Amino acid sequence: NMMNKYVTRSDIDILNTRIEISQKVKYLGRTFADDGSLTEEVARRIRAGWAAFNAIRRELLQSPQKTRIRLLTTTVIPAMTYGCETWTSKEADTKRLQRAVSNMFEIAGCDPPDMEKQVLRRKLKWAGHVSRMKYDRWAKIVSEWDPRGSARPRGRPPKRWADDIKDSIKIFIHNEALRGNLGHGRRRIGILEARRAWSTVGRDRVTWRSLVRSIQDGN
After folding, report:
1. Using an 8 Å Cβ cutoff, are 59 and 68 in contact?
2. Between the ranges 121-135, 164-178, 201-215, where is the mean pLDDT highest?
3. Which burial class, exposed, middle or buried, applies to 100 when counting CB atoms under 10 A from its CB (0-12, 13-18, 19+)?
4. What 3-state class would DSSP assign to 143?
5. What letter does residue 12 receive in the DSSP assignment?
6. pTM surpassing 0.90?
7. 213 membership: H or E segment, kind and range
C-alpha cells in the first residue's frame, strides 16, 4: 500500500491483517515512489542499461560501427527508457541517463543519442495514442483528469506529466510559423493554436507525426 502526501494516512486492515504502508512500490516493471520522484526508477533503468550492454559487449566491440549503433539502439536504449512514457522527469534525471548512455557509447566508439529527446519522443508517441482513445479508457481518463478543488501550491508549482508535451507543441508551432507552414489551410491553423489542449491536437495524426519527427530531427 502506498499513499502520497495529499492523502490522510490511516491504517488499512484486510481479514485482520495490517497492510504495510510503503514509500515505494514496484509495479509492471517500474518503481513508483510516494513523493513522485524518479530517483529510484532512473537508477533501475541505468542498471538495466548496463546489464543489456554487458550482455552484448563482446559481440558489440567486434562488430562494424553501423552494427554497433544498431545493437545499442535496439537493446540498451529500450532497457533504459522502459516506461518513460509515463515519467514526469526533472533535468537531473535526464542528465543521469545521459551520462550512463554516453559512457556506454564511448566504450563502443559511437556518438551517443540525446536522451532528453529519446524520452520526449516516446512520451509524445504515447500522448498521441492516448488522445485518440475512446473516452471510457482509463489511460485517457487519468491523463486528462483535472481534480476539482485542488489548488496548486504557492511558489513554483511542481512539474506535471503534460508540461513537456505542451512545451513541445509551442516550440513546434513557433518553428512551423518560421518556416511559413501555418499559412496553408484554416484547419491546420486551428489545430495548431497554442490554446488548444494537447489531447485535441493529438487527434490529428498527420500533425502529431510531424511533431514527433521534429523532435527526432533535433529541431
Report:
1. no
2. 121-135
3. buried
4. helix
5. -
6. no
7. helix 205-216
